[in-house]
Design goal:
six-stranded parallel sheet; six-stranded mixed sheet; 12 helices; about 40% helix; binds manganese (II) ion
């Protein structure tokens, strides 16, 4: 791993213009890791573009340099080096982005999702790490720029969001040790917590109540909730950028429940399924059966079907693994 880190740092030193990108529907770790890396490249005096398929959830706009994220457009690239964060699968990149990454001379992958990289290049994949930000911490610390307030704020945010505020099973002693070190840079822990948990619109609370009203517990072990387009519309939202964890955290503590799921209508007969567990059932494996993926404790997939059919298929599959 040390050797891989120095190979990547050498490449960053040598080259001058970089693409930074991440997976579709960027989450806190994806956004924060891209911005932490942007700070590093800025510090090294390098040119870079951060390009995403869609704007990051507004929740993360407090992160320094977040205004530098631009959206994919026709005339972009090619780049000398493409750096892909929190993702190593071509299918998790937006179509156009996948092509731009492939056209670049070198590719760097930094990720914590299990599995081999589908891109040729330098990959730093650490599945035991809680988050890409945790992996990036080691890389940035070894660089000549090192950590500072802005980088520490980004890294802490990515680690915080991917560990559910240090509450998921992926939180290791190293995760806490890193967080402890990041605090030495004077980051505003309380401020970050408040910003990440802030509710901008009272209608979101009403929407949450509608979603929680759909709670169903199947066989005492599987609990699920549903977010329909109609609920969104009724609460005045068009397409809310939302992390499933915000809703799932309400049902996760249910006694006896091993798997909690959010079924969400995305429109065009697409159902997004977000699954969480605190048991040893491998959510990544289950999600992969439906063309998705993630981590053992948290994974997701998209089914092209009706809500009812999605629920039946997913619950049936999970029940097979529970037994
Ligand atoms: Mn992540």
């Amino acid at each position: 791993m040390k050797e891989r880190i120095s190979q990547i740092l050498n490449l960053l030193e040598k080259e001058n213009h970089f693409l930074i990108t991440s997976h579709i529907r960027p989450d806190g770790d994806a956004v924060a890791s891209q911005l932490a890396l942007a700070h590093l490249l800025k510090g090294l005096g390098k040119g870079y573009r951060i390009i995403n398929e869609e704007p990051p959830p507004s929740l993360y706009s407090f992160l320094p340099l977040s205004d530098e994220i631009s959206l994919l457009s026709e005339e972009m690239g090619p780049f000398r080096v493409a750096i892909v964060l929190d993702c190593h699968e071509t299918s998790r990149l937006a179509n156009g982005l996948d092509a731009i990454v492939r056209r670049s001379s070198s590719v760097v992958i930094v990720d914590h999702h299990p599995g081999e990289s589908e891109f040729e290049g330098f990959s730093l994949i650490v599945p035991r790490a809680s988050s890409t930000c945790e992996v990036l911490y080691g890389l940035i610390r070894s660089s000549k720029i090192g950590l500072d307030y802005d980088i520490a704020t980004c890294l802490y945010t990515g680690i915080f969001t991917d560990t559910g505020g240090f509450s998921y099973d992926n939180t290791g002693s190293r995760t806490h040790a890193i967080a402890a070190h990041l605090l030495k840079y004077g980051i505003d822990v309380e401020g970050i917590w408040c910003l990440l948990n802030r509710v901008e619109n009272p209608n979101f609370i009403i929407l949450t109540s509608l979603v929680l009203g759909t709670l169903k517990v199947e066989g005492e072990r599987v609990a699920h909730i549903t977010l329909t387009k109609e609920m969104e519309k009724r609460c005045g939202f068009e397409n809310i950028g939302l992390e499933a964890d915000i809703l799932l955290r309400h049902i996760r503590p249910l006694r006896g429940v091993k798997v909690s799921i959010l079924f969400r209508e995305l429109g065009d007969a697409r159902i997004k399924v977000s699954m969480r567990t605190s048991s040893t059932i491998d959510m990544d494996k289950i999600a992969r059966r439906f063309g998705g993926g993630g981590h053992p404790q948290a994974a997701g997939c998209i089914l092209y079907t009706s809500l009812e059919d999605a629920k039946e298929k997913i619950v049936k599959e999970i029940e097979r693994w529970i037994r």
